[in-house]
Amino acid sequence: MGALGTASRNGQYRTEDIQVLEGLEPVRKRPAMYIGGVDSKGLHHLAWEILDNAVDEYINGYADHITVILHKAGDALTVTDNGRGIPVEIHPKHKKSGLELVLTVLHAGGKFGETDSGYVHSGGLHGVGASVVNALSRKLVATVKRDGFEYRQAYARGVPQSKVEKVGPFRGHGTSITFEPDETIFKTTRFDADTIKARLEDMSFVHAGLSITFKDEHGGHTYELANPGGLPAFLQKLVKDGGKPAVTEAAFSAARETGSKIEVALQWTESTEETYRSYVNGIRTPNGGTHENGLKGALRKAVNSYIETHDIKIKGLKITSDDIREGVVAVLSVFVREPQFEGQTKQRLNNPEMDAAVDNFARPALEAWLNNNKTAADAIIGRIVLAAKAREASRAAVSEVKRKTPGSRRLSLPGKLADCKSTDRDHTELFIVEGDSAGGSAKQGRNNNTQAVLPLRGKILNGEDLPTSRVLANQEMADLVTAVGTSAGDRFHYDGLRYGKIILLMDADADGHHITTLMLDFFFRHAPELIRKGHVYIAQPPLYRIDVGKETHWAKDDEHKEEILAGLRANAKADITRFKGLGEMPFKVLAQTTLDPRSRTLLKVEIDSNLDAHDAFKELLGRDAEHRYKFIMEKADQAIAEELDV
Fold it and tell me: Relative to the CA of 112, which of 79, 519, 523, 639 has its CA 20 to 30 Å away?
């Protein structure tokens, strides 16, 4: 598979080309360092690592088909490509087969050398993906077809169970990896077929010449995924799924095959959100990066250039970047020889040169498209002007309210709000807490100069499927909106925001997680701009205190507790305290672990995909109980009795 080794000159792929940087055992001890966590997202990351390796063979011209099988039990996966096959000869320096090196040694692979390895572009650049998957699988079987034979080797938790076996003659070539994640590592080992299918469908659009077969034996379905229409077809699907009409029938698309390959497709819609799907060497980068920044800059420059070139008069309006990008749905794919990802999970691209590379390509192409499609361009400019007018009207409304209530920003604020002294939005925080008891602890532990506390009393309204007016008829939600200062729905005005950070601080139990989900649904449905601009956070209060001698450790959940205990010396005696709720936590402890910016951990709420978030909230909180019933029935066998908060 692509990321599993290097090849030498003329595209040859030999064992001696594999280079070893070292190590493996740390993976089982600290899996989150390599896959981001041991929850469902981390579990599926194992599949993405093996898939990325298979796709690397396609990207570099050695494969055109991938088969993925979700086996009947739902906890095993097979990924097969028709690429060159991992080398199996004995490495001259390390005295092991190339296959064993790739699957048992971190940083063993073919993407580190300076020679022409046959890997011009690669997603599995770090050389740890295959070995990490092996280390975290209770069983893995690798089958290689190359040089006229089939070879096989089995592993258990990263340890070879035999030498590479020469099964017999075989016509063809490729690599097949079957793995079963280790149930002692992961909270669940059941893969989700819909998640895998969605990922594979994305791949089939981004790699227009690749065909993918997905056999869901667990659900009894087989899908043939191939989308020769590429990114323009992908854009059409995203716009349709978004449910907002396009501003113009025509969409912009452009591709560059020479040098660094870049392809982009975008369209303006009537949505108030902007949506980006960006990829690097075929790998989704949900947190964007320099390539996405380059596209956003190109949008701004191209539109401004069109306005100036055609001398379009926009009286009394200042067009901002946000106005220009409002409603844009865009897909961007770039190929980079040496991508610099942020972490092994590859959420963001950091290559500084890609900002200018994408800008320099996309800007003139979009300018030319606008000039050659004047009817579409005028419709787009009209949509941008409307966005600017709406923003100015919102700002004027806020200014009018401020003018009528001079000297005090605290008039009509909820009585239960413990406000902070500072009025500097960039340096203030609002903690939304669960109940008066927790609110009391938070008020005592906060810094009252910069931290405000709003306790929620009574039942939190489920606002899914409700209009904003109905949601705000609930006193708790009305108080929240008043404290935040922006209003909600059609009356949302960003300039009214009173705090730079809105922090959800709930108990670290099932009820607390439920309330957090309801709050996130409210912000997503009725004030999405607060999430989009990075103002919403989730606090991480501890569920356990672990005292070992004079040392104190704080664990946010059961998994974290077990991880801490596993890291203690063998004869260490641990005194474990479980907090029943924030209200019973001493305020000094709450301040130290959760409120103090110097020692706390906050999770910033980000939306990878508006469509995925919409579906998730609809499934979990929507009126149609059938979705929840299906979810519960599919996930019930993953629940562990000892984890239930009864």
Answer: 79
Q: What is the mean pLDDT of the chain?
A: 85
Tell if the pTM clears 0.70, that is, is over it: no
- pLDDT higher than 60, residue 398: no
How many CB atoms neighbour CB 433 within 10 A?
27
**What domains sit in the chain, N to C, each tagged with a CATH number?**
2-225 (3.30.565.10), 230-391 (3.30.230.10), 425-541+603-643 (3.40.50.670)
Comparing C-alpha atoms, which of 263, 247, 401, 262 is closest to residue 326? 247
d(CA 421, CA 423): 7
What burial class does residue 412 get, using C-beta atoms within 10 Å of its C-beta: 0-12 exposed, 13-18 middle, 19+ buried? exposed
Q: Which residue has the tokens 């070893």?
A: 20
Q: Which residue has the tokens 């604020």?
A: 413
The DSSP string of 190-225 is PPPHHHHHHHHHHHHHHSTT-EEEEEETTTTEEEEE
Report pLDDT for 608. Answer: 73
Give the residue numbers marked as catalytic: 434, 507, 509, 511
Instruction: Take residue 492 and report the two structure tokens written for it.
Output: 């949302």
How far, in Å, are 169, 313, 612, 614 from residue 325 at the CA level? 57, 20, 21, 21
Contact 5, 102 (CB under 8 A): yes
| Runs of H (alpha helix) within 265-314 | 290-309
